[in-house]
Amino acid sequence: MTATRAEYCVIACAEAWRDAGEILASPMGLIPSVAARLARLTFAPDLLLTDGEAMIVDAEGTVEGWLPYRQHLALVTGGRRHVMMGASQLDRYGNQNISCIGDWERPKRQLLGVRGAPVNTLNNPTSYWVPKHSRRVFVEKVDMVCGVGYDHAGSDPVVGARFHRIPRVVSDLGVFDFATPDHSMRLASLHPGVTVEQVTEATGFALSIPSDVPYTREPTAQELKLIREVLDPSGARAREVAV
Amino acid sequence: MTAAEAVSRLESGMTLGIGGWGSRRKPMELVRALLRTEITDLTVVSYGGPDVGMLAAAGRLRKLVAPFVTLDSIPLEPHYRAARERGAFELTEIDEAMFMWGLHAAANRLPFLPVRAGLGSDVMRVNPGLRTVTSPYDDGETFVAVPAQRLDAALVHVNRADRQGNGQYLGPDPYFDDLFCEAADAAYVSCERVVDTVEFAKEGPPQSLLLKRHVVTGVVEAPGGAHFTSCVPDYGRDEEAQREYATTPWPEFAAQYLDGRTT
Question: ipTM score of the complex?
Fold first, then answer.
């Protein structure tokens, strides 16, 4: 069985929650949602998942707990959560924007608003999912810092960034992290079929590129079966990432 | 009281909190009644949905305090976007948690509450009035001191209420409706059905009794009063009606929406 690009993306997102223990996985977007449930069914069996509303559900969808927004916000500050948010813009230090494009005072395009990105990034690990890697998303500088990046988090623990961490960014082209001396973005793996040139061409800033870039790992036969037959039998993932 | 009577207590220039979340359990009948008045120049405080979209489109906002505006199934609120892009009102954009703690501070009569959120983000840049506070204990950490968000009035919608102003929610999430009422000088609660107090126990468990009468000023019976937003278990979101709202130019939509024939 050959995996599709969308399926490599599922694997790459799921890996964000490997061995995470008893924490809440908060996926935003379809592929991260499939990925969190895959992780829960395989290598991260202790994960907590929600139904997207106020219920905590197990892998089969059985309600095991209650998490209304007020408790969800409290759980964030307790740190027992790893969220994977979307990003309209993302820069080399992992600053994220979902608020607006252009000058905030009079935006060219109003988007969602900062939502919970400021509180998320200072309190629990925050990863990002970008279904369409392009220079419009991967920019030199975001127009509005919603999710805090490494350059703004600083190293001084008294500025409220002691729990700041961006474990990974997953796009339709590859996986990225900040494992560099200055915490600038690094290409961590390419999805099979993607070249380094494709990635650099679609990125609006200079990525750190290791001399030997690995490929995103292959899904196991069991993982593919779960994705295709249990988690996303209608194939909705292909609408988020084609190819 | 009626929705019209409730909004007749409001005035131009007030700070108004609106309950619900996104396109979920919004007090739309009260918002509609408000749109039928001449009241304007409002500061609206909301986890924003179509309530914000409509008031913005109708030009009633002087200022909005919100972490987002969304229709949930339609991520970007088109009427809000258009109004924001033409600079129709002032915006105080803060994080979801900062917003909640601002209401908590108001409800607890505190000037502010410390929050580990906002620092490092442009929330600080676009809200130059925000101050920080340093822990007086050994850790010495710096936090944002989120100012209390007092409200002149709150508008919320729940599933059941009695005539005294006790309110019951029967869906999965209370959102922050109790907090809005506690942070406000006056709170107007619309509900799907007014019931005798004795009925509450049959409708749901004790913890479903969200709103207490000492923080509620008036109750409005408004069946379908959250439509087209969701009000489970009474009804889910009317996606078709929401789509129509989202794709119809505001003046055209308003002409129908405000004439009283549609619900």
Answer: 0.96
